[in-house]
Amino acid sequence: MTPTAAPLDLLLLPTWLVPVEPAGVVLREHGLGIRDGCIVFIGPRAAALKLEASEVRELPGMLLSPGLINAHGHAAMSLFRGLADDLPLMTWLEKHIWPAEAKWVDEAFVRDGTQLAIAEQLKGGITCFSDMYFYPKVASDCVHNSGMRAQIAIPILDFPVPGASNADEAIRQGIELFGDLKHHPRIKITFGPHAPYTVNDENLEKIRIIAEELDAAVHMHVHETAFEVQQAVEQTGERPLARLSRLGLLGPRFQAVHMTQISEDDLALLVESNTSVIHCPESNLKLASGFCPVERLWQAGVNVAIGTDGAASNNDLDLLGETRTAAMLAKAVAGSATALDAHRALRMATLNGARAMGLDSQIGSLEVGKAADIVAFDLSGLAQQPIYDPVSQLIYATGRDCVKHLWVAGKQLLDDRRLTRMDEAQLTATAIAWGQRISGHSE
Questions:
Q1: Which letter, b or e, does each residue of 219-255 get, where b requires 16 or more Cβ atoms within 10 Å of its Cβ?
Q2: Bond into 3 cis (ω within 30)
Q3: Where's the Amidohydrolase-related domain (predicted)?
Q4: Span 24-50, mean pLDDT?
Q5: What is the spatial distance between Cα 372 and Cα 66, in angstroms, rounded to a whole number?
Q6: 3-class SS at 358?
Q7: DSSP codes, 251-297
């Protein structure tokens, strides 16, 4: 792990370094060197201190890990946070969220909501997120300007949505955006058919063909509720996942979001196709959608990543908290206290998310040659003591307020809890103004 003679741009010296790959490893008193946005050195502190570096950061009491990866969300919906709480999914969507979107969602809404979500996620240790929302070009501009990393899924439905009059227009926009951004270092465009019940076979067929031609991923809500599966079986005699398999959509580029309902046949399809599952435990709990059997999937060899879902159904974009919930819930669902231990939970929130997005050669673990997407968690506080296993402490006893510093591709976007590129006071004021408009308290 010896870097070439050129000086490092930055040398980080934490108390603990958790690379995630290899699994279960905690390195004490090691250094990590960054040059040109990439990790070029990981080694003992004594060796690290012999290297020439433009900047050296001592991080006592801190744990360095790969940046967290939020594998599913609807960023701009942060402006609908708390708008229609405590309702079942279809009532929430049909009576509240879809009408609110029809009334309020435009380019300005998406810009302001996405910026709010980016700031919240950076402060929570998230370096990369997946977004599936309207006006995806606006969202991608926000990501570009922020310095963050993202997968932008183009939302495709059979009916008109904000920014696209039909599925064909949405697909055309997606192809164009894919072409525009295919060489972007931090943004990846994918196709996001909303759900099996909102996209017909003909449109799914088009998406499959285009995704194959472009080698693009497909990101879709699947088996979110028992009702969705039951309705599909009653209407067509086929479970939604089986339908997607018949249409040729499942595979290593397919990201199945939610998957709370998994039969033995469903599990076999996921395993055979090497499809990734994106688990959103808190949204599923809040909407009473069901429980994704994470341990069962993991033991079968399915790649399971984790997402917050949108702030309208969660109600936060706190992936560290989400990961803690996922670990607890996995134990309850499996009936085993050993299910989804802390180290595997962290892997689910980092490397598994990168793998689901096809980015695992670039991000998701602290390895030489990968991008320097890194978060420093401060474990020096009262509530984290004493520390036997720092990863256990991170997952079970640490909140996102312990996120101290964050880098994406070697650029520091959070410095001592302060956003370096965004104006937090301005973002807050803008969000408050939107809330007043939407609630009818101002014009």
A1: bbbbbbbeebbeebeeeeeebbbbbbbeeebbbebbb
A2: no
A3: 64-412
A4: 98
A5: 8
A6: coil
A7: STTEEEEE-----HHHHHHHHHHT-EEEE-HHHHHHTT-----HHHH
